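HUMAN: Ready with one sample?

ASSISTANT:
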Amino acid sequence: MENKQYYFLELLEKVGIKIPIIQRDYAQGREETQSVRDKFLDNLFDVISNGKSINLDFVYGTIKDDFLIPLDGQQRLTTLFLLHYYLGITENKDIEFLKKFTYETRLSSREFCNLLIEKKVSPKEIKNQTWFFSDWENDPTIKSMLIMLKSIEEKFKDCSCFDNLKNITFSFLNLKNFNLTDELYIKMNARGKQLNEFENFKSHFEKFIKDPKTKAKLDNEWLDFFWNKFKNTDIQKTNTAFYNFIKFLAEMISYKNGNKKEFGYDFYEIINILSKEKEYFINVLNNLNNIDKANDLFSTEYKKNKITLLDDKNLFLNILTNLNKASLFQKIILFQVINYILKFGLDDGLNDYIRVVRNVLWQDKYLKQGQIIVTTTISIEKTTSYLKLFEALLNKDIYSFIVSFKSKYVTDAIELEKEKAKLIVEDTNFKEIIFEFEDLEVTKGDIKNFLNNNIDKFKTYLNKIKELFNNEDSLIIRAMLTIDNYSIFIGWTDLDDWKEKYYFGRSGYWDIIVQAKSNDKFDYKKFWQNFLDKYNEVGLEKMIANYLDKSIDFTDWRYYFIKYKEFSEKYSDEYISNDKNIFTFYEKDDIWCVQEKLNNTNVIGYHINPFIYTVNELLEKKFAFSIQGDNLSYLEIEDNSITFKDNKWEIEEDSFELINDKNLDKIEIMITSIERYLD
């Protein structure tokens, strides 16, 4: 029987399917696997009810006496058997072909399957049949099948789609073609259960190793490493760690070889990769001690001769104990640590090389429209390209090498690394300043806006950035606005009159503005360097004072942001609890007008106009009202509703004098008018 894709009926037309006695019980119908079961059935329903196609991956096994003996795939095959049964009886189809599917695990399981096909009973009637023995409910496989049939009935009761079952396929792989037999699976422990995956892995690995000394390392030197790593007598933990490491290596090799789908850690896929890359695996295992020592390179914050990862510095241990939770970022970093060590050993060049790898990965991010949180976009689809890029960059002296690096993988991130490298190559004194600058949480490797070939100025920028964000957000915002309007456009509102949304900065979210990329409209590098020069010269408070000493344009919204800290401080209004310094703006008569300050990134929640809020705070009254939806916030003075729009105050009832003049401070106008009226 050839290796190819089959659908269930097509397979049964060629051979029978016999679930061997060494296999575990059918588990997809267990009560505790409901979420997995529901998701699987949802996928199958979507496929066959809409005429789509799906491939359920590999089924591994051998052919004996015209029967397929699956060694992997039992769960999927049994579910397909039950699905064909249910749709067959509900649509009055011939299901005699299903008799070629049988279980060897227990006589009861086998008889139950045969009687199902013979009697053709709906799932809810099965237990009421005279032929159904109550003891069968103690058979884990039958119990699981009954639960699965009930779930299938709930999902497919209105689906007449038996003929579309051929759209569900799987790929058969005959283990005879890999010179593998099922003898391994006949080796069972005293309780009759199959060997665990680690023991299976070792048995296969031993077949690939020809050198007796190397083969002995499996149960000695290599296993001892993982045993000592945990400093306890838990052999299961040791075995799991060892096998997790093997799975990790197989996964990364798979991506390196072009796989752009999530690696499923399938046992035989791992063995297949192992058979082709056995020398690589052996080489890696022979370097376990150096790989472990390399973990000392990492820290959670800047330290000289270290590389910060900011979150968790113990990559190796994470892979060994929590492989499924490890991120692609962590996996790629560790994989490149390993590849460097295999080529050059554990030397000083590793730090520089991995730093470049980390920086490039850190720059794979995007700012979703309307949000102020940067999200990593490292994906499985990109991993192959990254691994090829980092292989091309693998060099003992990465900075000298990357200066003239030419490749199809050149990106903005690589160009930035080349700029840094030029400074380091020309003057090694730049190196540690760059390293410390890169390791700040607010930059995360992206220091394009601060690079300067004047080393004294560059060092000043580092010191001032480290110092800057210890200040109140409002003070920082006001001082920055004295240089220019640096705010970040984060999208449009969904309301006609509200127009654009801009973000000005807040503690914990300054990275967006620090790492902002220059464009045709605004040069962020020029802005940051001008700002830091002035900050270093006179300080934040003096920058504000100097700005306000100049001639004032009272129609310029920046004047109000700079003069009144209330505009950008954290609002005391109970409804603006999630204040992130996001404002809506619109243009009126060629003047940019500030509309409302938002509670969050959208206008659905509460919002309040900063002029309204500031007047209220300065009067120390409770006149101001934030509001939801597309209405404007307002001041309420003894039944008079006052709003601020088009750069003017608007009063509902003209019961007190209100001056609206573009040559006067709008805040002072309102405060004076209210105080005069209340007096």
